[in-house]
Amino acid sequence: MPQLTINGKVCDFEQGQSILEVALANEEAIPHYCWHESLSVVANCRICLGEVWAPNPRNDGKLEAWPKLVPTCQTPCGEGMVVHTDSPKAIGNQKSVMEYLLVNHPVDCPVCDQAGECHLQDYAYQYGRAESRFLEAKIKAPKKDIGEHVLLYSDRCIMCTRCVRFTQEITGTGELIVDGRGATEQIDVFPGMGLDNELSANVVDLCPVGALLDKDFLFKKRVWFLTKTPSIDGLTASGDNLTIEHAEGSVHRFKPRPNPAINRFWITDEVRYGWKFVHSEDRINMPSVAGMDPWADEQANEAWMTALTTAAETLRGKKVGVVLSPMLPTEEAFRIAEAAQALGQEVVFGLGPVPMHGEDKTFKDGFVLRAEKAPNARGVRSAVGTLGEVHEWDQFLNAVDGCEALLVTGNYPSAWCEGDALAKLSRKPMVCVDTLHSPLTEAATVVLPGATWMEKSGCFTNATGTVQAFERAIEPVDFAKCEGWIAEQLLAESCGDAAEVFHACAIRERLADAGISQLANVVVPEAHRAVESDMTTVEI
To answer: Taken in order 119, 123, 129, 130, is the CA torsion positive or negative?
Structure first.
């Protein structure tokens, strides 16, 4: 494999790779703003310029310096090249670029949402001046409301054009443009149009400075107080990789997590803002039993003991219909099914309704917006299928009349059982494990508060059959419990023994041994841990 040297480090490369790509792949930092691996190369920020020495075939292959600094994001690698981005000449360019970018910048880091994760801020510390030499008045640029989710602070913009290229090359919608020339150049939307596509908020993630901001997160939390937990989309069948950013038990935002095989670098706005039900006032936070007075918070242990005992008696020795929600992780659905088998004389398994909204939509770069709004229908079918036949929702409703009791799991982000389905289920004694109050929980004999996927561990199987694991980000709200824990308690009620501790990884191993080979090598993503910066300060 051909090699080149970048800042003293020998690196392998493939033909066609740029110097910057190879440097980043080898953990050799080169400052950059406009370059992004999913977008076209424009080389307009100029901070990545480096000195290049290359063999000259007309001079017996001796190394000769190229006459000018070149953009490393645009320059392809060559065998035997020697590249310096830390030489006095390269650093002088980086300092000049930073001084130029800050000429009209308001330098309002204390009130900027991007503070703490801003490339401009980082490079200003590394290459910037302590004092500005610019004595003239700064050009003022307006703030703009450019879409449902996004604000544009034009005076912070460094014109990297990532956002413009995103709407042209990724979504193909082209809402954003570059307007004006020179010092008056600005990002804008076409008159009468707004930033209105299903991936619109990804421009906030792409922006390397604080110019494009998320309305929902604006002034809510400083990023250094957030804990970042890698997770999976728990709302649709896409299986998009994301990071849950939370603090003190509350979720504050979702960010996409790169995965070239699944979602590349993006998540839909639907997923990004779909977590609000976790902290909804309609969350069920205490067990309840029909005909009994509600329990106070200090009676939570008594409430759970009574509710679990009543639930077991409701199901014991009967023909039980079990609704297994496609919103549940594979391991929990399997364990709930086992608990129903242990308590009931006979069981009928049914997969909960799988919401479908329109048809799949493929964007210009191949990203797919899934019409299926359930994360794990395939995983539930596969796992519970090792215990018995799993009926689709309509088939299950036809079989409900023959059941004597029901065990129903929900976990949907909104009311999911209405009309004829609600009427059918409401006629039977029912144990309902759900997260939100609804007409179904009002009709249940016993209601047990479940946990959302952010409050538990497990795995989902997406629309393409890819199995992905995730870990708990926050604790369940108030006195809610994950469905795996509830299943273990019901199993203990069935045999009179002490309940086992639910471990998703142990259930995965059992299912892999039972023949579901996809679960054998599932890797849990490593959680983000804060590290001390190794950035060095350059003396001016």
So the answer is: positive
Q: What is the pLDDT of residue 193?
A: 86
Tally Cβ neighbours within 10 Å of residue 475: 12
User: Do 233 and 242 meet the contact criterion of CB atoms below 8 Å apart?
Assistant: yes
223: pLDDT strictly greater than 80: yes
For 190-218, b/e burial (b = at least 16 CB within 10 A) is eeeeebebbbbbbbbbbbbbbbbbbebbe
Residue 535 is predicted with a pLDDT of 54
CA distance 484 to 73: 49
What pTM was computed for the model? 0.91
pLDDT at 531: 47
Q: Quick check: 494 and 339 in contact, CB under 8 A?
A: yes
pLDDT confidence of residue 525: 82
Whether the predicted pLDDT of 170 surpasses 90: yes
Q: Which two tokens stand for residue 301?
A: 């242990």
> Sign of the C-alpha dihedral, residues 126, 127, 132, 136?
negative
How far apart (Å, rounded) are the C-alpha atoms in residues 505 and 475?
18
Q: Which residues pair with 242 in a beta bridge?
A: 231, 256
Tally Cβ neighbours within 10 Å of residue 418.
11
Phi, psi of 164 (to 5 degrees): -65, -45
What are the tokens at 48?
């990545």
The pLDDT tens digits for 404-421 are 999 999 999 998 999 999
E strand intervals along 190-342: 212-214, 227-232, 241-247, 250-256, 288-289, 319-324
Band of the pLDDT at 498, cuts 50, 70, 90? confident
Quick one: what percent of the chain has pLDDT higher than 70? 97
Indicate the average pLDDT of the chain.
93
Indicate the class that CATH gives domain 3-99: alpha beta
Residue 71, CB half-sphere, CA atoms under 13 Å: how many?
A: 14
- Residue-range domain boundaries for the chain: 3-99, 279-519
Provide the residue count of the chain. Answer: 540
CA separation (Å) from 246 to 178, 216, 218, 223, 443?
35, 14, 15, 10, 34
Bridge partners of 348, per DSSP, are 321
Token output for 220 = 């809510």
CATH number of the domain at 279-519, out of 3.30.70.2200, 2.60.120.560, 1.10.3720.10, 3.40.50.740?
3.40.50.740
Element (H, E) at 420: helix 419-426
**Distance between CA 56 and CA 235 in Å, rounded?**
57
Please give the pLDDT value at position 59. 82
